[in-house]
């Protein structure tokens, strides 16, 4: 009965395997605590935590536009289903009020909730695992001293088996390595600080790195361009679509103030990021710029020369189009639309950030895909609430998808040396129907309660 | 080309790149919509196209063939103002009045598609329209009144016949 023995052996293996998987997957519950008093945290630690929470952009996911800060409930569409962000206020019942610091440290380091449940990687613990114990302590102090809010997010809408959190143990086994940041001794202290912020709490790769079919970042394509909230997150490596090459100084300026004269204004979810980074000291922003510049690497001599030439040309004002603004001419309809609707701002010479960007400088118009250009033209850049900010009107109610295609065809032809986008009509239709969920955000940064005028989810 | 404005068709002899605002004011002599900034930033030029509020200063007529354009002149007449106009009169919402036609058209577009728009939705929708006199509170009151008048008008057998 050789075969019978084989079956028994196989059965035993499966039992051991499943048991082993359970042991691997099982995480203990950490005992609840009484929510700590505000007085139990040093004010300096709380203030430090506030800056770190800004680096982590925590509020972007954990606050609904116009809702209470950190009370969660924001819809996060993923290719696998919809996740709703959790309440991270110190409310004992519905927030993290009963979490001890150890439970918080474990969530950041391992992606496990207080009760031992595996957390969905929409919470970017693949990055947060790099955060130091000291920084987690400060973040904990900051969050536990926020206003507690009683609010339970809607249940996640995920299909079986993804709604069983135990499967996340398998995902972690495949894609997740926990551990604090390891200093690269061959690099400067500033570079290491930048890498710690960019790859750890800043979780830049969560948007700027492409993901595989199971939603994990492709390690071999670190910061090579990804997507976020219906937008393309441009490549931050050598394949950056920016017509003018980025360097350490321009990256610093852009991250520091949310815009750069040669690159334009941060928009979409990036507006929130630069808005949040406003809390950081210059030295940290410089460190991030240093690290990202090193990821981008030295541009080729040819690319540098092209970039320098463009900057020279820009100085002498707008260029005349070879395409006549005549609807019967090839490309002419797009030229007509550009002249009437766009050129009044984009060619009026008003400097950044309040003037329209010369589109020869626009990464959006030079990008590999049309998504950001479609989003910008349809929804524009809403005004910020109660302060001066860059704005752009949206044209969703004016332009049909064909007319939008005419316009973008003209922009590509006239302002770039890139090939035409071929899927604009379909993409625009899918964007309007909400197949691509687009977060529209003001450029000055974060638009979260008490009033919410600009931010909208399309 | 042909443009459909306030329910009637007009043959217009203008360059297709001409912004709708200029055609309305100069060719058709419909002077409700105003030139403010010319950049789509103030809202004084707002009119409706196919029921949606748009900036006429940034919209070349090329885009508008076969579409329904509506201006304040299409909301009612002096003798028989429409509910939106009536509400603005009753609330005395205008000071200099320059922004009012744009405000009315954006509010009209909102209330047509959403008759029960909340106060917060009204405020958010009008965000793109600026008023320099500072009559915002009266404008908001007027739109809220219009929200009620439009419901009454919708129920009345003959709309637009309300006595002042």
Automatic annotation (TrEMBL), chain A:
User: Which residues, if any, are the signal sequence?
Assistant: none
Q: Where is this region: Disordered?
A: 435-458
Q: Name one GO cellular component term.
A: plasma membrane
Question: Where, by residue number, does heme c 2 bind?
Answer: 204, 207-208
Q: Name one GO molecular function term.
A: iron ion binding
Q: Which Gene3D superfamilies match?
A: Cytochrome c-like domain
Q: Where in the cell is it found?
A: Cell membrane
Instruction: List keywords of the entry alphabetically.
Output: Cell membrane, Heme, Iron, Membrane, Metal-binding, Repeat, Signal
Obligatory cofactor(s): heme c
Which residues does the record give as heme c 3 binding sites?
342, 345-346
- Entry's cofactor comment: Binds 3 heme c groups covalently per subunit.
Pfam name, any one:
Cytochrom_C
Ligand binding (heme c 1): 58, 61-62
Write down the InterPro entries for this protein, in alphabetical order.
Cyt_c-like_dom, Cyt_c-like_dom_sf, Cytochrome_c-type_DH, Membr-bd_ADH_cyt_c
Residues forming the Cytochrome c domain are: 44-147, 189-296, 329-415
Please report the name of this protein according to its UniProt entry.
Mono/diheme cytochrome c family protein
What organism does the record attribute this protein to? Phyllobacterium trifolii
Classification of source organism: Bacteria, Pseudomonadati, Pseudomonadota, Alphaproteobacteria, Hyphomicrobiales
TrEMBL record, chain B:
Keyword Coiled coil listed: no
What are the alphabetically sorted keywords of the record? 2Fe-2S, Iron, Iron-sulfur, Metal-binding, Oxidoreductase
Which InterPro entries is this protein grouped with? 2Fe-2S-bd, 2Fe-2S-bd_dom_sf, 2Fe-2S_ferredoxin-like_sf, 2Fe-2S_ferredoxin-type, 2Fe2S_fd_BS, Beta-grasp_dom_sf, Diverse_Oxidoreductases
Q: Which PANTHER family match?
A: BLR6046 PROTEIN (PTHR44379:SF6), OXIDOREDUCTASE WITH IRON-SULFUR SUBUNIT (PTHR44379)
Uppermost EC category: oxidoreductase
- The EC number of this protein is 1.17.2.1
Q: Which parts of the sequence belong to the 2Fe-2S ferredoxin-type domain?
A: 1-75
Stored SUPFAM superfamilies: 2Fe-2S ferredoxin-like, CO dehydrogenase ISP C-domain like
UniProt GO molecular function = 2 iron, 2 sulfur cluster binding; metal ion binding; oxidoreductase activity
Q: What is this protein called?
A: Nicotinate dehydrogenase subunit A
Report the leader peptide range.
none
């Amino acid at each position: 009965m050789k075969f019978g023995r084989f079956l028994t052996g196989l059965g035993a293996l499966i039992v051991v395997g499943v048991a082993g998987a359970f042991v691997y997957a099982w995480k203990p519950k950490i005992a609840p605590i009484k929510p700590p008093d505000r007085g139990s945290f040093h004010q300096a630690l709380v203030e430090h935590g506030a800056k770190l929470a800004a680096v982590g952009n925590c509020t972007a996911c954990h606050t609904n536009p116009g809702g209470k800060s950190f009370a969660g409930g924001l819809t996060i569409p993923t290719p696998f289903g919809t996740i709703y962000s959790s309440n991270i206020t110190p409310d004992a019942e519905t927030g993290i009020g009963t979490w001890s610091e150890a439970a918080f440290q474990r969530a950041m380091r391992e992606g496990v909730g207080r009760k031992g449940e595996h957390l969905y990687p929409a919470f970017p613990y693949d990055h947060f695992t790099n955060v130091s114990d000291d920084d987690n302590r400060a973040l904990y102090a900051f969050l536990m001293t926020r206003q507690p809010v009683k609010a339970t997010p809607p249940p996640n809408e995920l299909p079986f088996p993804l709604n069983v959190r135990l499967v996340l143990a398998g995902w972690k086994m495949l894609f997740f390595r926990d551990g604090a940041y390891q200093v690269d001794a061959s690099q400067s202290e500033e570079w290491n600080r930048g890498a710690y912020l960019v790859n750890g709490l800043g979780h830049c790769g969560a948007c700027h790195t492409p993901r595989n079919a199971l939603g994990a970042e492709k390690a071999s394509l670190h910061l090579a361009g990804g997507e976020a909230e219906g937008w393309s997150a441009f490549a931050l490596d050598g394949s950056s679509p920016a017509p003018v090459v980025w360097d350490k100084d321009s990256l610093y300026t852009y991250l520091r103030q949310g815009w750069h004269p040669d690159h334009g204004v941060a928009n979409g979810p990036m507006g929130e990021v630069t808005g949040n980074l406003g809390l950081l000291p210059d030295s940290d922003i410089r460190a991030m710029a240093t690290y990202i510049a090193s990821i981008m690497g030295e541009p080729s001599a040819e690319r540098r020369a092209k970039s320098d030439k463009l900057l020279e040309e820009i100085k002498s004002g707008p260029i005349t189009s070879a395409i006549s603004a005549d609807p019967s001419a090839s490309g002419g309809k797009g030229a007509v639309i550009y002249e009437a609707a766009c050129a009044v701002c984009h060619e009026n010479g008003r400097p950044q950030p309040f003037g329209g960007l010369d589109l020869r400088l626009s990464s959006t118009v030079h990008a590999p895909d049309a998504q950001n250009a479609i989003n910008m033209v349809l929804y524009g850049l809403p005004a910020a609430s109660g302060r001066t900010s860059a704005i752009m009107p949206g044209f969703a109610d004016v332009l049909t998808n064909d007319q939008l295609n005419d316009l973008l065809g003209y922009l590509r032809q006239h302002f770039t040396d890139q090939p035409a986008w071929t899927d604009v009509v379909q993409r625009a239709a899918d964007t309007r129907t909400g197949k691509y969920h687009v977060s529209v955000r003001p450029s000055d940064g974060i638009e979260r309660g008490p009033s919410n005028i600009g931010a909208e989810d399309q | 080309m042909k443009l459909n404005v306030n329910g009637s068709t007009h043959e217009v002899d203008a360059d297709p790149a001409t912004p709708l605002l200029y055609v309305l004011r100069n060719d058709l002599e419909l002077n409700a919509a105003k030139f403010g900034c010319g950049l789509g930033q103030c809202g004084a030029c707002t009119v409706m196209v196919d029921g949606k509020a748009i900036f006429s200063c940034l919209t070349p007529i090329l885009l508008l063939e076969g579409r329904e354009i509506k201006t304040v002149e299409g909301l009612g007449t002096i003798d028989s103002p429409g509910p939106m106009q009536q509400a603005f009169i009753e609330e005395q919402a205008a000071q200099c009045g320059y922004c009012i036609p744009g405000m009315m058209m954006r509010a009209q577009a909102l209330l047509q598609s959403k008759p029960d728009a909340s106060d917060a939705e009204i405020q958010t929708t009008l965000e793109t329209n600026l008023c320099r006199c500072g009559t915002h509170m009266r404008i908001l009151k007027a739109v809220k009144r219009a929200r009620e008048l439009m419901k009454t008008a919708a129920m009345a057998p003959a709309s637009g016949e309300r006595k002042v």
